[in-house]
User: Fold these one by one.
Assistant:
Number 1:
Amino acid sequence: MNNSDKFLWGASTSGFQAEGGYNEDGKGLSTTDVRKVPSGVADTKVASDHYHHYKEDILLMKELGLKAYRFAFCWARIMPDGHNINEKGLSFYEDIINICLENDIEPIPTLYHFEMPQALVDEFGGWKSRKCIDAFVEYARICFERFKGKIKHWVTINEQLIATAASDLNGNHEEDKFIQTKNVYQMSYNQSIAEKKAFKLLREIDIDAEIGVVTAVQNVYPKTSAPKDVLAAMDAEEMMMYMLLDMSVFGRYSPRVMEILKENDYLPQMDECDQDVLSYKPDFIGINYYSSLCVQENKTKDINYKLPPFFRSREFEVVNNAHIEKTEWMSNGIDPLGLRTIIYKIYNRYHLPIIITENGMAYSDELIDGRVHDDYRIDYISKHIKEVLIAKEEGYPVFGYCPWSFIDVVSSHQGFAKRYGLVYVDRTDTDIKECKRYKKDSFYWYQNTIKTNGNQLLLSNKN
Ligand code: BG6
């Protein structure tokens, strides 16, 4: 097996979902702090209290055997008002990075994971404005300069798809749904230009470091083999995934995407000067994969504005896939083979190294006598890792796998009822308790998988 020791067995978290300490040591308010959370659902104020437990958490990572920790900075901790630096915020991340390095864990920071200073939304509307490009690039510069020589892999933006679509996370609160949707495409374009400027900047500041994008990949199946359903599936992949990645890698949208954007009057404004950075590309692509999608032709050709942005389409509509098993929290189903398929698709189009930056199983875990028997999660992760390793063995350059999430974190929209962690954080939505950590059964399973480099998974039948 061509499964070298350098494979980054990692795990992921994000700043606003793990840290808490939302107003401590000079941190500014984040978009994620001010959004309205339904009553009875945990918010970001304490989250998993990683802000106060990070040393203990990194020791747990060491015990697990992690080779990499993929996490995210909170922009508002580093730049509370979006302009000035908060030294204590930078020191916090410096400490995380240093302790990881001392323990032979490669820190992989993401600059933007659904969170930004609310001050920048108040000042100019956040990503709707091109001013946000400059603010982001300045933030990136501060981070690149400060952590030069310590970071081998940077991530710019986590899941542009969700980062632009989730209005509660980015402040795109237009009442008019057409304008709100048009804004989403402008925000996406602005984020792409900000990323390109960050690629360029990192090459100037730290030539040895690499930088990548993280994509919420969409492996879309047609409901039937009817040609119109097949075209609908291709269009869904174009509009929900390739649109974003083509811009990241090739610096352009495909003719099909351009046509659909123009037809709907969604085409973002592009500035002449952007030409200067369009040729900068990422060094790698991060894949966040939870499930696949299934679509059929949208026979009405109307846009359903009740759906979230990106699902609003004249070309396709999302339908149930009867072939995929579903659970309470995995409503799109569980489809391990879809992960291998999407690795093929992404590599065949972009020819860039790939890291799995998120993949995980949500469940309302129960802590009983200090243990969490999450065999359902072990089943999910083992089947997905196996598909990754098969692709790797076939020669696809996948250099790491990071399950979501290392510890339980507050879900992006569903609090602590929905957990993904390898480590249980003892709190509920309404009772913060002490956020004590407990290793789940999946922790021990993953520890053994790392130790054996996943070999036991490949020994079982590939099909
Ligand atoms: C990914 C995000 O989209 O999915 C994470 O990068 C998120 O931040 C994860 O937590 C799982 O989604 P959710 O909504 O179940 O928390």
Number 2:
Amino acid sequence: MKWAILSTWKMSFQGNLEAAQQLANHASAGDAAVHCIQNVEDNPAFQSVGYGGLPDAEGHTVLDGGFMDGDTLRFGAVGSIEGFRSPVAIARSLKDTPFNNFLVGPGAEVYAREHGFEERDNLTAESLARYQKEKNRNQELYSYDGHDTVCALALDDTGSMCAGVSTSGLFLKKKGRVGDSPVIGSGYYADSKIGAAAATGVGEDIMKGVLSFRAVMYMRNGMSPMEAAETAVRELKTELEHRLGSCNSVSLIVLRNDGRFGIGTTIEFPFVYTAEGENPALYLASPSGDGHTTIRKIEDHSAVTQD
Ligand code: SD4
């Protein structure tokens, strides 16, 4: 079976590369996806995930994460969790019980502490300085460049698939606000019999379209990964423009269970893809205007300004 790993944003390049080496050495899809995501969670240079993530309106760095196992359809998720290193690892462990799979706030923190997950204050001097500079601006949610979720979809050489996500959500979000990322079906979905999908962008709009589940179902019904990703995003954009006048930034990654990928996006969107027999590569996806996506490989990474 051919293995593959697909992840969001340029910031996932190093994690994707390392996860691909693991997959080449027969790691499981779950271990590889979590490794890819943790590389981003641990890097304070990326202000949208984990350590160094931008705070909420009250100055707290509060994180969301989700994980789904495509073999069993088991999932786990945490929302509004503060003080831990890796929301995706906590989410992954929550999938293993029949109930209580999605925990939020203090309940998620108690679970993580009791299960020995590493604690960490994720507010850095840089993220605090940015908060203090911008905290009094209009806090209406808005489409915000550079504040993004790391999502990883992995297929291992046994044919198992998974989806994992981690984010600090929107900068200056209200206390208790949870976006699409930990919400199964919206932020992520995986079914090893079909494929997997995950989203980044403004969660309030992603949830209106239940985008990840929608794309996986489109593949089940025969669409290619590219058609599924493009159609899911195009339909959401068209509906929201029609009903509400606009659609915020939304990007969707899709990986089929044969390792082929697809992208749907309303904005320029960098992503990373590696598959057996191919080198890790950074790509830039752009909406072509007719509801399709144009994809080009980026050799010179400094040419992509978004993280
Ligand atoms: C959220 N979808 O919390 C996340 C944030 C994100 O690009 O991905 N922004 O709504």
Number 3:
Amino acid sequence: MLGQQTAADRMDHIPFSGIREIFEECDRLEAAGEDVVHLEIGRPDFDTPKPIKDAAVSALDSGHVHYTSNYGISELRETIAAKFDRDNDIAYDPDQEVIVTTGATEAILVSVFAFVGQGDEVLVPNPSWTYAPSVRMAGGTPVSYSLDPETGFQPDLSELRENVSDRTELLIVNSPQNPTGGVVDEDRIDTLAEFAVENDLVVLSDEIYEKILYDDSEHHSLAAHPELYDRTISVNGVSKAYSMTGWRLGYLGAPEELIDPIIRVRQYTTTCAPSLSQHAAVRAIGSGLHEPMVEAFADRRDRLLERLDRIPGMDCPVPSGAFYAFPTLPEGYEDENEFVWSLLREKNVAMVPGSVFGSNGNGRLRIAYSNSVERIDEAFDRIEAWLADQ
Ligand code: PMP
């Protein structure tokens, strides 16, 4: 049998994903016939809208089954450049400044590999989605900066200033945010711009949830800021807005000088995004087909907040975007890992421990409301009964 020593040293710092760990356990429970309520994974439960599926079927019938350009098919790059221009007020040349990727996950990985080397530091939000393992795989060191729950999870500028060093290469910003549902304010972007220029940083702006906004919250792209355009990589994708997580289709836009190293990495990762998904994305982007789903997310959010409100201790900043809530644990509980695993084993309700997203998630849970109001109610009926029995 091969031993642990055969894995590369850097694998010591690459844990099995905390989200996937829960998800795999759900799979095992379901295979054994259990009825699991999924509030753990950021995977909308809707079918992909029919016009988008039809576009893929028609691409299949037309024989679009081959490798495409490393940058992506030109029709999609033009659709993406038009979207950046219309929705985000950013001008990217579709021929030189847009790359289609295999999910936003790959857009992030290739950007990190292009700009982060051995010993470089990367400023990563705390809490945040799993950027840190990509940074570590590239040989870099993630250095966290806090998102403050008191301000709706705005980046803490004083912590950014304290934690930046002459090794810092990249600043990662995510808005709307996973796991908190926070949205970065426009005036905060001015300060981030000043900070990025002062420290000569490349900025990776993950905007994959831009279409999922509630109440009167607004999304502002970092690259639309004149000081940030030259140094920003704008990452996006169709997974979340169009319920296309399985199609593996993301993209990035950046000025040509930044694209150059990224495309060279991209040529050696997955070559090109799935061809049928690229044709489907041409139909999806700019279609407005996400709107009914966003309305449904708003109802789900409201229901979830009502249910959280009934449980003492589960304090939750109101999410302004994405489909995650990030409440504190019920009264009397301190350990989010113990809480999540007991709840899953005893009541078949799945959530993610907040600490998976960084130390500021200690004592919190991430609840994904990418599931129906009925299933949210089912989960909370079980939780209330379980808490009453403790
Ligand atoms: N960024 C964030 C903040 C996410 O939450 C996710 C998916 N959970 C991704 C990127 C990756 O999305 P995909 O690879 O499906 O496009």
